[in-house]
Amino acid sequence: MLVIKDLHASIDGKEILKGINLTVNAGEVHAIMGPNGSGKSSLASVLAGRENYEVTGGEVWLDGKNVLDMKPEERAREGVFLAFQYPVEIPGVSNINFLKTALGEIRQHHGLPPLSAKEFLAMTREKQKLVEFDAKLANRSLNEGFSGGEKKRNEVFQLAMLQPKLSILDETDSGLDIDALRIVSNGVNKLRSKDNAFVLITHYQRLLDYIVPDVVHVLYNGRIVRSGTKELALELEDKGYDWLKEELRVSESIQ
Amino acid sequence: MYLCAMDNDSDILEQLAEREYEYGFVTDIDMEIVPAGLNEDTVRFVSEKKNEPEWLLEWRMKGYQSFLKQEMPHWQNFEMPEMDFQKISYYAAPKKQAKYSSLDEVDPELLRTFEKLGIPVNEQKHLAGVAVDIVFDSVSVTTTYKKQLEELGIIFCSISEAVQNHPDLVKKYLGTVVPPSDNIFASLNTAVFTDGSFVYIPKGVRCPMELSTYFRINAENTGQFERTLIIADEGSYVSYLEGCTAPMRDENQLHAAVVELIAMKDAEIKYSTVQNWYPGDKDGKGGIYNFVTKRGACRGERSKISWTQVETGSAITWKYPSVLLLGEGSEGEFYSVAVTNKKQIADTGTKIHHLGANTKSRIISKGISAGEGQNSYRGLVQIGPKANNARNFTQCDSLLIGNNCGAHTFPYIESKNNTAMLEHEATTSKIGEDQVFYLNQRGIDQEKAIALIVNGYAKEVLNQLPMEFAVEAQKLLSLTLEGSVG
Question: Of A128, A209, A200, which is closest to residue A171 (Cα–Cα)?
């Protein structure tokens, strides 16, 4: 589904991604871990098309379509969804109205008519239930006055509503208490299917106890330096990143 | 601008920024236009054209005399443009005018114009429940639903007709809220006003439909000086809406209207404006100078006047819809959204004079600046010595889009009574790149994202508009701001 080849990107002239290679197939969940400043969130931003990043090399394909040629909204309509680390507040814009607009745009892109008010409402109810999202929050202004946890849960609710192919969760677990973490994880698990894929960006192994990944990658200094199974995450949890950094330094000096 | 557009974006944005004003066409119609110039004869000419009684001509002359004595205002937050009052024509009317007893008699070209503007002239095809009066250059063209309103004793007609048919009412109230000497533009209006609307709601009557006036400047080198007078007698209610457009011309045209509202005991007037005069082109050439005096008097106990304005047009907007709270327990409200894009200037706000006891007022102002637009909120809340327990709440917010625009606020408070309670809140914010990106990431393009954010920001004010017009106003806001983010 997602193929990233030798992706380089920089911000303000500073190279952040230094040749990322990653393939995510439909039905898979990949976790990307790594120390602070390794480029995890930058990768998410570049995939979503944030404009202050400059892609200096490489390719990104989504089901055979060139993602880097698309504007952010086109990527979204093609099925790239980013659950933001820090979702913004937009006062006065109702959550529901916003979702209706977004869903309408995505459906239109795929040649589908907008849902009727009744259909939309039914869908809203169903998804709210699925991801345990409070109906009161759904009717409020977009993220306005939401707690950190509520904002994250709203991201998962939006994910459920928009049904993207590829969902990138950028530290969705950070700042969540254990109950919220469980609710968010349950939501994601229910939304997993053979047709979609998830990329989880996280600091902590904790999230992976709830959402079990197929592959775990370690991003360090703008590159994926190691990939493995869930056990890799456990190893990192156990030993931290320093052993990995040390190992890399050794191998680089040999080369 | 601070949002860095992608390369393929900038073309589209440029096109949008240069998008033409939708209502900028000129109607080719046989007009009677007097030569430019202003003197006593001009005033006499207008008065004669309108077949006015002697007292009205005298009153106009008072206005003319004080016009001669007055200076241009100098306190506003922009440089007052040169205005040559001798170069303006003070009377322009479609030739086939006079009175139309039915729509069939109206020049079809004129009807087509209103169709193009989306104004419901034809009563059958009409938005449900809105009566419309239409002022084309200097004269009122048609008033719809007149009969139905008459049955309730409601008078809704052009002010020229009111002078003929209800002279006592006009004489009793005209100029009692905005006197002939109020300010130079009001004096000018007094001298040469040509038409406008007149509304009288009798005691205890709740007007069953929205009353609406549509103003259109068409002729070249003319000014539009309309005068509107609304009287809500005891216990009555009326909601009134005005809209306006003008053709695109390279010369600036002056619009100097006066609106007077009078609310008696327990009466309520809700006055809404959607102002979309031609704003000038992207270089600031042309556009309407909108210098307007609007004031309401809450004369009776528990009366209420509420101004709502959505100001998106005009090269310069200079207006401060005000309320005099005379009656005990009376209430004044001012809800405003003012947008300046390109090189537009708006200096707008309100004055609320608390004179009676237990009077209340509420001011919600939302300024939006984009392009090189300059937007100033100017407000005065005055509490008189007898206004015990007066209360005011003011909120003025400014939203900036881009780096080349400006937002300014000038709130004044004068209190002569220590029982007054005054609250003031103000914010200035910028449409965040993050907000736009967030919406982009959900499949919403840049233009729609801005429209969503701006409408959300202005929601509190837009909610005050009658339903049909709220939708129109939302669209207008989006159109005005199209291409403002690049």
Answer: A200
CATH class of the structural domain A2-254: alpha beta
Q: Give the strand pairing for B304-311 and B268-275.
A: parallel
Do residues B375 and B367 touch, judged by C-beta distance below 8 A? yes
B385 at interface of A, judged by CB pairs closer than 8 A: no
Residue whose structure tokens are 């005068």 = B227
- Whole-angstrom distance between the N-terminal and C-terminal Cα of chain A? 33
The answer to whether A95 and A140 have CB atoms below 8 angstroms apart is: yes
Asked if B437 has any chain A CB less than 8 Å from its own CB, the reply is: yes
Nearest by CB to residue A73, choosing from B4, B433, B443, is B443
Paired sense of beta strands B130-136 and B139-143, if any? antiparallel
Say if A105 is an interface residue toward chain B (CB within 8 Å): yes
**A52 and B4 in contact by Cβ < 8 A?**
yes
Mutation site for B-interface testing, chosen from A11, A45, A51, A162 by largest number of B Cβ within 10 Å = A51
From CA A138, how far away is CA A123, in angstroms rounded? 13
In order, the DSSP letters of B357-369 are TT-EEEEEEEEEE
pLDDT in tens, B113-128: 656 555 555 443 333 3
Q: What is the mean pLDDT of residues B128-138?
A: 55
> What percentage of residues in chain B have a pLDDT greater than 70?
78
β-sheet with A80-83: strand ranges across: A80-83, A166-170, A197-201, A29-33, A215-220, A223-228
pLDDT in tens, A152-195: 999 999 999 999 999 999 999 888 888 889 999 999 999 999 99
Count Cα neighbours of A241 within 13 Å in the Cβ-side half-sphere.
Answer: 17
Least trusted range by pLDDT, from A130-139, B129-138, B157-166: B129-138
The highest-confidence range among B103-107, B246-250, B281-285, by mean pLDDT, is: B281-285
Q: Is B463 on the interface with A (CB under 8 A)?
A: no
**Phi and psi dihedrals of B49, rounded to 5?**
-50, -35
Q: Is B35 helix (H, G, I), strand (E, B) or coil?
A: coil
A93·B452 Cβ contact <8 A: yes
- Residue found under tokens 């400043």: A37
From B83, B345, B119, select the one nearest B215 (Cα to Cα).
B119
- Give me the residue spans of the domains in chain B: 7-361+368-376+399-406+429-481
Amino acid B218: pLDDT: 58
Residue with the larger pLDDT of the pair A215 and A134:
A215
pLDDT at A193: 95
User: What are the Cα distances from residue B41, in Å, to B34, B61, B212?
Assistant: 11, 10, 33
Tell me what the pLDDT averaged over chain B comes to.
82
Q: Do A174 and A203 touch, CB atoms closer than 8 A? A: yes
Look up residue B357 and give its two tokens. Answer: 């006891």
